[in-house]
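User: Show me a protein chain along with its predicted structure.
Assistant: Here is one chain, sequence first, then structure tokens.
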Amino acid sequence: MSAPSTRPLLSLYRAIYAAGVTATLLVAGFGLWIGLSLPSWPVALVSVAVAGLLVLAVHRRLTEFRSRRHLPGPKPSFFLGNMSDLLLHGHGGRHESLQALHDEYGPVVRFHSAWGSAPFVSLSYVSPNLLRKELDSHRRADRTVLSRSLMGMAGGELHRTHRQVIAPSMTFRGVSERGYVLKDVSDRYVNKWKHVDERYEGLQSDLRDWSVNCLSAFLFGDDWDVGADLHAYHRALSAIEEEVSFRAFHPFFVRWVFPRRRRRVRAAYHRVAAELGGVVTRREQRIPASCPAHGATGTAGATGTAGATTATGAAGDLLDRVTRAPWSAEDRVEELMSLILGGADPMSYVLSQALVMLSLDPHVQEKARKTIEASSSAAQEGDPGPDPYVRNIVYETLRMFPPVPFSAKFSDERAVVEQGMSIPPGTVIMWMKNAVGRNPEIFREAERFNPDRFNPERFSADGEERNDTISSFLPFGAGPRHCVGNRLAEQQCIVLLTEILKNFHVVPLRHINVQFHSTISVVPSAVPVRLVPR
């Protein structure tokens, strides 16, 4: 959605609020007149109650403004709060608008959402408060689209049981055991790029395909249909991401106001669900739950205890654990959908930005090749393991170009103190990752691409620990609701980046206009680099 199109949208929202208030007053007034004229005291009392609810809602909105006016931020309007400030650069440029607000108001910025939605406080640093267990992730939009998954469900026992099923496949060990899958998929794309000409413009599309194929092959094993129509699959995934993103910052009634959007996201949901439902069905038919070897770890899968093998004797993948879990078919499909949605576009964006930065810094590029060669020759043949310097490149890219621009926590009961200011309960606390990663008070030479800042030696000459660590910006979230697939995401990027550096020189392409659009993650329109075979 472009910036100009937000003006009529905001006008529509104001009109809906004004019409709602006017209609409520008219209904209450007419009912009161009827009740007093007949007379009918029940009708009169209902009318007074309706008017009273409206007065109470107005009072709560004004109290929301008063209780947070000590926090820095732009002045809100009654109906829409600070939506006009947030959408100054369009729906897809909210991270740019938030960055501008931090530049103007400092490290803590308050902004109010539309009437009926919780207010926000955005931080340009990672606060220890974000690690508190009693703060749950703010998942209002996810709950309207992916309510059965880790993305959408509230914290609590159900969330823990779902996470216990998924987490063993996502540990460092679980990812390492199936790392060969990531390499096989990455090699397929590397071999393709060796045979394209210099004018090849499909790198961005290939990176999205690679990300989906990597995730799916890792999660689903041989039951993933590599011949699937990935472009239609991408379009459906993008439609779901767009809708989740749209509902997150717009008024609560948007899912009913735009029926075409609602139909589009439902069609996309059914398209992805059909693909993933087919994956689950193939696994269940190939290794039915009645199989002794499959059922032996069925209870373990439900409680989170690691189940080691399938009936074939091979290391079990996540799909095997999900089909053993005591969930409904809808729960299984939606949980798998959330994992694909949470990882596909974010990782393709990280790779695209890493390639751009490497193309602009031949020194870092050559150093990475030397460390890859050194670690390969020093390691045992077969599995040299991930190169630490390539991991640093991934971390530095995440710092400068976070694929998910912001994450949010929510406290219903307790106030939170930030920078000496008390943030009342009921406020969503968000850390703006773009602002955090480029905050010069946290990262020295914050605008410089410097993978060395994440070396294990994190101490200065006087022995004081430095701030520039991955914990300083938390790209995968914080606390009990941090991204369950962070290890897989890291390894996925490291494997492809390593193979690219082994086989290609990364050269910048000038005069290419790249546009960025932000939904759940950031999506670039192109990758302005050329891969030249070594």
